[in-house]
TrEMBL record:
Keywords: Membrane, Repeat, TPR repeat, Transmembrane. InterPro entries: TPR-like_helical_dom_sf, TPR_2, TPR_rpt. This is Transmembrane and TPR repeat-containing protein 1. PROSITE patterns: TPR (PS50005). SUPFAM superfamilies: TPR-like. TPR repeats lie at residues 69-102. Gene3D superfamilies: Tetratricopeptide repeat domain. The keyword Membrane applies. The keyword Transmembrane applies.
Amino acid sequence: MQLNSTFFVATVLQPCTLYSEHSVSALHWRSVAPNTTRARRYSQGHGRFQEMLAEQSYKLALNLDPKLAKTHQNLAVIYHIKGNYSSAEYHYKEAYKLDSSPQILLDNMRKLQRRLFDMQDNTCWRTDATLQ
């Protein structure tokens, strides 16, 4: 797949430019006023921006080459943290199909299974408690 220049500018360069501008501003606020509410809010917003940029970058990479195991794994971790467990499970499984050797992948898959089991167990418990 060949990228045209408009697509490249819109999907890669603009987000990178925004990221750079936000990074410089965030670093400035951290050094000038680390204990102010404004600095904390700005820093938190910067973190969400980084997370969104990472997610979009991984999605773009998978559109270009869906056989990138590490990219599936990283995207799964983002979804896992966000609580989007069905997407996390899908990307963990895709990563496992492509490369089943990384121990961290297996550990993360187990953590997700435990989380899903706990959620199911809690739902059943609440349902049973409401019947009594």
